[in-house]
């Protein structure tokens, strides 16, 4: 029997990682309330972002590539964030929207 190589399983591994990232993001979105804290958007998970309240406390980015860590590490990082839609996230960074103290408070 020939030794199995990464190349033999590359496509499977790529799909498995993508599936895990999607599942972790869904868990994180549910954990943070399932909708944008500013406007209430909740139609598509891909349009929801995690905005770090304090960039200095950020250990890692929660973009797709960041969602390969354990749930415990992901949850710890998500606790430093507010769930917002992509539009509101861009407006926060542009200085057009401010997060009120009430919206900063999470679980």
In short:
With 107 residues, the protein is mainly alpha-helical. The chain has helices spanning 6-31, 71-78, 86-94, 101-104; strands at 48-52, 81-85.
Salient structural properties:
single chain; 107 residues; mainly alpha; two-stranded antiparallel sheet; 4 helices; 2 strands
Number of strands: 2
> How helical, in percent, are the residues?
40-55%
**Could you list the spans in which at least 5 consecutive residues all have pLDDT below 50?**
none
**Beta-strand level of the residues, as a percent range?**
5-15%
Largest sheet: 2 strands, antiparallel
In round numbers, the mean pLDDT is 85
**Separation of the first and last Cα atoms:** 53 Å
Rounded to an integer in angstroms, the radius of gyration calculated over CA atoms is: 17 Å
Number of helices: 4
How many domains? 1
Strand order of the largest sheet: 1-2
Assign an overall shape.
Answer: elongated
Q: What pattern of helices and strands is seen along the backbone?
A: HEHEHH
The secondary structure category is mainly alpha
Description:
This protein has one domain. Helices cover 44% and strands 9% of the residues. It has four helices and two strands. It is elongated and about 60 Å long. The mean pLDDT is 85.
Task: Walk me through the topology.
Elements: H1 6-31, E1 48-52, H2 71-78, E2 81-85, H3 86-94, H4 101-104
Antiparallel strand pairs: 1-2
